[in-house]
Amino acid sequence: MTVKYCNANCQRNHWPKHKKECEQLYDEALFKDPPAKEECPICFLPMPIRLISSISLPPATILSVPIYDYAVANVELSGKLMEQHFPCCGKSLCLVCLHSCFQTGNQGTCPYCKTQMIRKTIEEDVKDIMKRVKANDAGSMCELAMYFRHGEGGLQQDRTKAMELFARAADLGSSQAHDYLGAEYYEGGDLKKAKFHLGAAAMAGNEKARCNLGNLEGKSGNVGRGLKHLKIAASAGHHEAMHNLLVAFRIGMVNRDTIDSTLAAYNTSCVEMRSEARDKYMSDFKNRQR
Predict the structure, then answer these.
(1) How far is CA 104 from CA 97, 101, 107, 112, 281, in A?
(2) DSSP 8-state code for residue 94
C-alpha cells in the first residue's frame, strides 16, 4: 500500500519486482500472535466459539494426548455455539449470560439493552436486523446474509445477496464475515480467494478460520505453513486444531515438544474462558442432552 498505479496493467507489471518482499510482510502479519478474543459485553470473559473450548484438557501422557477421547466424551459441547446475536442492539452475548438472564424471569428481554422481545416472530427479527444493517452493523450483516443464504425468515434464498452482505461486513472488519467468505470460496473451488479471506479472519483472531486455513494449506501441499496455523489455533483454545495436531504427531510430522507446549497453551486459553457460571451451565447442558 505504498505505491499508487495508473492502471491494472501497470500494477501487474510491477508485481514481480516486489512480490517477495510483500509476501514476507504478509507472512509476518499472518503468523504473529493474534489479538485477544472478543469478550462478552456482560461477563467480560473471552468468548469461545464453542462450549467445549471452556474446559481444560487433562495432561498429556508419554503414550497419548487425550484430545480425541476428550472430544468424543464431550461431543454435546463440541457442537454447541457459545454466542447468540441480538438484532435489537447488535450485540453478541455468551449463552451463559443469556441463561442467567432467563433464570431471573426475563425470557422476553434482551440481556444487554433490555428491549422487550416477547412474541416476536422470525420475520420481525429480520426487520430488526435490517435496521441494524442500515446502520452499518457488521454482525447484523452476517445474520441477514445467513437468512438469505438459507432462504429463511420470510426471505427467498439468494446466495448472491448473501455474498454481498458478507463482503460488506468483511470490509467493516468482521472476522466472522471473512470466515464465511473463505468457506464459500473454498466450496466453490476458488482456493486463492478462500485463503485470502481465511487469512484475514485469522489475523483478526478467529481461531476457527485459522484452523481451516491450516487444513487448506496442508491439503495444498504447504505442510509447514499448515502446521503453523494449527499450532496457533490450538494455542488459542480450538479443540479441532489440537486434534489435528495430534494426528500429525501420530504420523511423525510434529515432535513431542511441540505437542506438549501447544497443549499447555491450549489449557491456559481454556482457563481464561472459564468461570463457575460457565462450568455449571456446561454441566447442566450435558445432563439435559443425556
Answers:
(1) 11, 5, 8, 14, 15
(2) E
Q: How far apart are CA 53 and CA 81, in angstroms?
A: 10
Instruction: Judge whether 268 and 242 are in contact, CB under 8 Å.
Output: no
Q: Which three cell numbers stand for residue 132?
A: 441494524
Q: Answer whether 78's CB lies under 8 Å from 52's CB.
A: yes
Distances (CA, A) of 103 to 88, 107, 275, 279: 21, 8, 17, 16
Through-space distance between the first and last CA atoms of the chain, rounded to whole angstroms: 55
Per-residue confidence (pLDDT) for residue 271, from 0 to 100:
83
Average pLDDT score over residue span 195-216:
95
**What Cα–Cα distance (Å) separates residue 224 from each residue in 219, 228, 256?**
11, 6, 16
pLDDT, tens digit (0-9, with 9 covering 90-100), for 79-121: 788 888 887 888 889 988 988 888 887 777 888 888 876 666 7
pLDDT of residue 123: 83
Place of cell 514476507: 24
Predicted confidence (pLDDT) per residue in 37-60, tens digit = 889 999 999 988 887 777 765 555
Q: Is 81 exposed, middle or buried (0-12, 13-18, 19+ CB in 10 A)?
A: exposed
Give the global pTM. Answer: 0.85
Supply the CATH classification number for the domain 121-201. 1.25.40.10
* Domain parsing of the chain, residue ranges: 121-201
